[in-house]
Write the C-alpha cells for this entry.
Amino acid sequence: MKRFFWLSIVLVLVGTSTFAQEKKKIALEDIWMKYSFFGDGVYGVRSMNDGINYTSFTNRAQSELAQYSYKTGKSISTIVKVTDIKVDGIQAIEDYEFSADESKLVVAYNTEPIYRYSSKANYVVYDLKKKETKKLDEDLIMYATLSPQGNKVAFVKNNNLFWQDLESGKTTQITTDGEWNKIINGASDWVYEEELELVRAFEWSPDGKNIAFFRFDESNVKEFSMDIYGDLYPEEYSFKYPKAGEENSKVSIHIYNLENKKTVQANLGKDWEYVARIEWTKDPKKLAVQTLNRHQNDLNILLVDATSGEAKNIYNEKSATYIEIPNHLTFLDNGNEFVLLSEKDGFKHIYLYNMKGEMVKQLTKGNWEVTDFYGVDQVNQKIYFQSAKDSPLQREIDVVDIKSGEMRCLSSKKGTNDADFSKNFAYYINYYSNANTPQYITLNNSKGKEIRVLQDNARLKETIKKFEWQEKEFFTINNADGDELNAWMIKPANFDASKKYPVFMFVYGGPGSQTVQDQWGSGNDSWFQMLAQNGYLVVSVDNRGTGARGADFKKVTYKQLGKYEVEDQIDAAKYLASQSYVDGNRIGIFGWSYGGYMTSLCLTKGADVFKMGIAVAPVTTWRYYDTIYTERYMQTPQENSSGYDDNSPINHVKKLKGKYFLIHGMADDNVHYQNAVDMSTALIEMNKPFDQFSYPNKNHGIYGGLTRMHLYTMMTEYIYKNL
C-alpha cells in the first residue's frame, strides 16, 4: 500500500532532523457536515441544435446559464441569469428546456419533490429575444414540455392534462376526470414511477398535432397510509400502493388531436397488465406502445394509428423468467427500422429490426453486456453506447457501425466511463473515475480524442492526500458451488498480515445491481475509509443475481430472492474468516434497502458466521413490497408462496445470535415502515434482543438537515461497540 510523505530536512549546527507530515484521520463531520469528499461536476449540460455548442450553468447555484463552444471551451455568451427572469420566488433555474428554434426557454423553479422522481414546480417561458417572462400557471404544475415546434407547451395539473398556445396564451384542458387517488392523466402512479421509471406520461407527436398520454385508473388499488408528525394531531398521508399479488392500476393509452380536440383510445388488442412505454415513430401518425403481461416475460411492441386507435404487433419477445424493459427503443429516420436492446442471447446487446418485426442484424455480440445506450448517429450510421466489454467491474464507451458491424472503443482510461453526446455526435463529455480516482470530466471528439479538461477535481484530490486514504483492492472469492464472485477490500493503513483484524462487509446484492465496480464513491466510501483507519477490513462482494455478467448469473435468483444471494455472502464471510489476518469471530455486515434485507438474512440464516449487522430500511417480507418489482422476480404470492416465505427474515428470527441494529424511516413510501414493525414483532415474540431506531417523517433515503450525520454517528458507535 503506497503512502506519500513530504520530507522536510532542516540543517542545524548540531545535526539533521527529519519531520514527516502527519496524515489526518477522517471524522464523520468531514463526511456529513463539511462534505469534504464529495467532488465537483459539470451542471446543466445541454447540447445545442448546431452540435458545436452547448449550454451549462456557470455555477453550482444554477443562477446563470451560458453558452459554450465544444471546440474551444470558451464561453460564447450568457443566455440568461436568474435575475433576468423577473418573477416572484425564483432563486435558481432548477430545470430548463429550449424551444425548437432556441428562442425561448421553459424554466422550472420552486420545485417540490413528490416521490423518487416525480415533482411539481412553477414554470415560466422566457423569451430570449424579447427578454420577457410569462408564467404558465399560478399554481405548481408538473412536467411542462414544449411541442417539437416550440410554439405550444403541455403540462399536468391536478391529475389532468393541459396544453397552452404560447402565442395567444390560451390554455386548453384535455382531460377533466383527474382525481387524487383515483384517476391520473399524463403522469404515472407510484409503482410505474418507482419500478418502470415512468414519470412524465405523455408525448408530443413529431408534427405537434397530437399528444399521446397514459390514463391510470387507480380506483381499485388499495391505499397505504403513513403518519406525518409535527402538529398536535399527526397528519395521515394516504396513497395508492399495489403490493405483491394485489390489484394494479388499469392503464390505457389515449391520443388527443389539437386540431379537432378529439381523443381516441388505443386499441391494444387485450388488457395488458403493464403498458411500459410509449414513443412516437418517425411517422407522426404512428405511436409505438410497449406492453407486458403480469409476469413480465411477454413483451410486445404495438404500432397504434393516431387517427383510429387501431394497433398491430411488430415485435414479440418471451422469456422463461423475465424481460428487462427496452428503455432505448429508437426509430430510425428512414422510417423502416428501429433499434432496441435485448438479453435474448444471454447478454444484453443491440439489435436492428425492420418495421415488420423482422430482425435485420444483431449489432453487438459476445459474453459481455451493453450497459447504457447513448444514441444513433443517423447521418454516419453509427451507434454509441456504454459496455462492460473488458470486465463487469469496468465501463467503456463504444461505437458500432450499423452497416459493417465494426466496433471500436472510444474511452482510453480503465475504470468507469460515461458519456453525454452532442446532438450531432461530433463531441461528447466523458465522465471518468476509478475506485481510487475522483471524477475526471473531459470534452472529447467522436473519435475519442480528449480535447480539454472540464473538471479534474484537483481540490478533492488534494484533500484526500491529507488523510490516511487507502486504495480499494479488487479480488475474487469462490462460493461453495464454484462460482467466482467479484469483491473489493479496503485495508487499514500500515496493514500487518501477522495481525488479526475485524471485517465489516457492505452488501446490496439485488437483481442486476453492483457494489463491486471500479468507480469513485463518495459518502459511504469515505465512511468505509474512516472505519479502515480505525482498524477494520472493509469488504464488499457481488453475489449471484448481480449485474453485468449475463442473464444466467443474474436470473439464477428467479422465484427465490434471497436464497443464493445470502448463501454467497455467507460463503464470502467464511472465506474471509479463513484468512490468517482476519478475526473470524468479528465479522459484521451492513446494507440499505435490498442490502438491509440481505443483512437481516445474514444475521439469521448466517447466525454462526456474522457477529453483528446493521439493516437500514430493509424489506423483511416480499409480501409487503410492490407488484412490478417483486413479481418480476418472484411471480405473485398466490403462485409462489414458498418463494416469498422461505427467505423472509421474519421467518428466521429464532436463529438470531449476533447484535442486530434495525433502522427505518417512518415516512418511507418505498419500503414501508411496516417491514420494521413486523420484524420487531417477530423478534419480540422470540424474545430476541435487538436494537432499533426510527426516523420520524423521513423517507427511504433518510436525509435532510443533520439526519445523515445522526444516522452515521449511531451506526459508527454501534460498530465500535459490537465489532
